[in-house]
Amino acid sequence: MKQLRTAIVLVAIGGLLTTAAFLMAFFTAEVQQFGTVTLEQEVDTVFPVAPDQFQPPAGEGIAYVRPWFSQKIFYFHVPVAEASFLVLIISAVFAIRFLTSKRAEFDTKSRIAMETALVFVVLTMITGVLWTRASWGVWWEWEPRLTTYFIMMLMMIAYFVLRNSIEEEERRATYAAVFAVVAAINAPISFMITRVIPSNHPVVFQPGMASSNLLPFIIGQIGMLMIGYGIYTARMTEERLRERVEIAKEALEG
Amino acid sequence: MMEATNAELYRLVLTDAPYVIGAYAILWIAFVVYLSMVLARMMRLEKEVDLLESAVSKRSGE
């Protein structure tokens, strides 16, 4: 049960790091701006007055910078999304190793990595939809990043449908491995799409990010990757137990 | 143009709060539920392995 202990430690440390990132997002990270709010007259407030180009004509009130509170979702939505891309690519790497070696252990590793990636993808979708609703006022928009990510999620679900539809073990593993590689091609496409096609979705990695924003993001990212590895390790331990059950059953029946 | 009070500015910011808190809560509830399910299955499998492997060793000892 050494692997289970490792998984629990990884998830616990990951949980602490992501919680620290969440708190830093509120207490130390620089507040981002999202548009302006025009009030009838000047008030005593901590919110800064908007630059001149956003000010209404004289006598028609005063514009204040609107703090972008929902941007705080960034500090856990993006780490979950990045982790989903990485784990999906790891699943494809195991799939390629299966195709080249035909060793069943790589099929198992690829399947478990795909399952872990799907958990992260679903959570990315949920946190993303909530951020979309808070920032854009709609629950969903068919813009490039959301659409490509949605296609990626559908392909990952299709991977499990495919597995369940084939009974013969080796054929199932081979088809699933090919499909895992095809599904993983979506990861770089979805990641890069906002840089190629104009999109409402923010481009995360770009120069000029304040260190007070970068630090909680990096801590959250490390924490999320540890949780991902912890989940993968726990599921692999479960699979090995399942294999031992099958071997013992066969020994008793034989 | 809005009524000129500081509270109005805070109210605008806080309309986003349920989404931020909801997103974080869903994330953690999902992780906890998923890992609890994995752990529960593992504990059941562990018991099954112990029973089956002791039965196998008894049979091979006979």
Your description of this structure?
- The complex is a heterodimer of chains A (254) and B (62).
- With 254 residues, chain A is mainly alpha-helical.
- Chain A has 2 domains: 2-32 and 70-253, Four Helix Bundle (Hemerythrin (Met), subunit A); 33-67, no CATH class.
- Helix content of chain A is 71%, strand content 5%.
- Chain A is built from 6 helices and 2 strands, in the order αββααααα.
- Chain A has a two-stranded antiparallel sheet.
- In chain A, helix 2 (74-101) runs antiparallel to helix 3 (104-136), helix 3 packs parallel to helix 5 and helix 3 packs antiparallel against helix 6.
- Chain A is elongated.
- The mean pLDDT of chain A is 91.
- The model of chain B has no long low-confidence stretch (mean pLDDT 86).
- Chain B has one domain.
- The radius of gyration of chain B is 27 Å and the shape is rod-shaped.
- Chain B has 2 helices and no strands.
- Chain B has 62 residues and is mostly helical.
- At the A-B interface, helix 1, strand 1, strand 2, helix 2 and helix 3 of A face helix 1 and helix 2 of B.
Keywords for this structure?
A: 254 residues; mainly alpha; Four Helix Bundle (Hemerythrin (Met), subunit A); 2 domains; two-stranded antiparallel ribbon; B: 62 residues; 2 helices; rod-shaped
Summarize the structure.
Chain A has 254 residues and is mainly α. Chain A contains six helices and two strands, in the order αββααααα. Chain B contains two helices and no strands.
Task: Tell me the greatest interface.
Answer: A-B, 51 and 39 residues
N→C terminal distance of chain B:
89 Å
Strand fraction of chain A equals: 5-15%
| Overall pLDDT confidence of chain A | 91
Query: Could you give the order of strands across the largest sheet of chain A?
Result: 1-2
Number of helices of chain A: 6
Strand content of chain B: under 5%
Helix content of chain B: over 70%
Tell me the major beta sheet of chain A. Answer: 2 strands, antiparallel
Instruction: Kindly report the CATH topology of the largest domain in chain A.
Output: Four Helix Bundle (Hemerythrin (Met), subunit A)
Helix and strand element order of chain B: HH
User: Percentage of helical residues of chain A?
Assistant: over 70%
CATH architecture of the largest domain in chain A: Up-down Bundle
Rg measurement of chain A, Å: 23 Å
Oligomer state equals heterodimer
